[in-house]
Amino acid sequence: MRQPSESSVNATIWDSTTFYRTPNLKNNPLKRPRSCQNKECQKVDRISNLPDPIIQHILSFLPADDAIKTCILSKRWDTIWTLVPNLIFRRECSCSQEAENFAVFVDKALMHYRSPKVKKFLVEFEFTECFKAQVDSWVDFAVRLKVEELCLEFHREIADDPDYYYLPNFLYNNIPAEKLSLRFCALSPNKLKQVSWMSLKVLSISYSWLSNEMIKNICLGCSLLEYLKLNQCCGFDQINTNFSSSLKDLVVDGSWGPEDKFGDFVITIKGPNLLSLTLAGYMHRANYMLLDVSSLVEANIGYRMKSCSHGCRSNWYSAHRSVLHDLLEKLQHVEKLTIGTWCLQILSISEVKGLSSPTSACKYLTLNKKINKWDLPGIASLLQSSPNLQKLTINLMPSNNFEF
To answer: Is pTM beyond 0.85 here?
Structure first.
């Protein structure tokens, strides 16, 4: 969200009375149009006549810089934004100067925020180590205001950039948040041994390194955790949810295996209390194995394996067909099953080769695939192996996999 250079609402401008410099009313794009000839119509400002809590609720859906810009509308709007329940700070540009301006903008916005509590606090920009102290202060601010949903979602222009945001020590204590989302954040293995997120119900971790022990400690330290998502994480080969009786929904969206174990690296999942399991995204040099998922009601196996050259596709299929077959056998009891593009292609080849799908108790089957004639054998195999099927849903989604 690049600030236009000619704008009178540049985030770096500050004075003692308003957040932004007073705008030029002659060129102000927010100036009320005079197209209405009815004088009574011109006098009516229905939005400004709304109660403050409703206006604040509306503004809470906007990024913070857009919400703050409303302070130039009138004196009444001057401080309305300071009580919005959600604070959303986003900066997509990777320019270092704009990142510095963004950090200054967040600092100043928090100085003027007057609400005693914040419902959602989100900060997203390209983090580098020089912003560590400032981000720590923002997180401390959100925790002190008893934040309900905390989102630290950083991004980077270079994938192997070493600048991860290391969570401050106080964040491992009993924070009030019920939802926590971390992207390109580094977690301390030692701190996770004593982690206490007793209010946390939803946790999402993206692009981070996690060991088996760290995942175990997260489950142990989150007694109310219901939903766990691991997105493009690496470092583990086991997800054991036995340590969390409350965890019901697990999402694994892609994972990275060691470079020297292409196709031989297996991630085992143990979840006797899980009700929903999603395996999505690209799997790099790794496969899945389900050990105990007896309570599952819903499963989505929409993951994809990295494509290969034409010359190795036959061996590639043979290597992964047994993995998919084993997954379907472990999911025979689920009532709701979703199949994605890659899995459906494997099933189609298997059917042509005379290898049918395992029998399923599925009642509701969803196929996420733009159907073509090569998918028909796989669909037929699924239908024949699902005698209890009551509803079939086909989402015609474009494929990003190669066609066999």
So the answer is: no
